[in-house]
Amino acid sequence: MTDHTGGDSPDDPHADAPQPDDPRPDGTAPHPGEPHHGGLSTRLNWLRAAVLGANDGIVSTAGLVVGVAGATSSRSALLTAGLAGLLAGSLSMAAGEYVSVSTQRDSEQAALALEREELATTPQAELDELTGLLGDLGITHDLAREVAVQLTARDALGAHARVELGIDPDELANPWHAAWASFVSFTAGSLLPLLAIVLPPHAWRLPVTVVSVLIALTGCGWASARLGSAPVRPAVLRNAAGGAVAMAVTYAVGLLLGAAGV
């Protein structure tokens, strides 16, 4: 008989199944845009390389061209210094990311190889170890044992990699991805202060560059905070303050060197 009361039928097998918009046990509703651990980890890796590259490109090139502007008004000198800084910085960032992430990947692969060998030679000890690790998470021993057995039967290496090593064997760090992300983001960041210092008339070069750089750094700070689900204000202040200090210091040095005729 169909239940017309508007509630769930007692025999409905889906009556207690959680729905996408069901509240959590604490009474709060889930949010579709809320970050989850797996996706957030991958996203933050890309975010780190892109934001660091863009910030470094903006700040280092801005500091370089502003410093040169303090010593000379030559447009060609500014363009030469800016292009040299752009190329040197972007290549350096790319090489540094490639080496760093390659080292990380080598370490992950070595750890996985060792774990694969241990699973082949001492499977029972590895099962006991996985049970203990699950138990450390607050799971009762019997349930931890059952979960360990099921995980081992399904994918022993994957289970140990994630629980014991904190590694996802299907998503190892890619050094080429990191290198290209850093190269492109540094280049994009460097172009803004370079164009801002060479395109305007002489009297407007410094004001346009300083304002453009501070706006760009504010945007980078806002974007990094929003994408990383972090507080916006500290990120924006850090970026803007760092850029302002860098430009002030290099401009002062450029003025001193220009006055000294160096």
Automatic annotation (TrEMBL):
The keyword Transmembrane helix applies. Pfam families: VIT1 (PF01988). InterPro entries: Ccc1_fam. The lineage of its organism: Bacteria, Bacillati, Actinomycetota, Actinomycetes, Kitasatosporales. This is VIT family protein. It comes from Actinacidiphila epipremni. Keywords: Membrane, Transmembrane, Transmembrane helix. It is found in: Endomembrane system. Residues 1-25 have a biased composition (Basic and acidic residues).
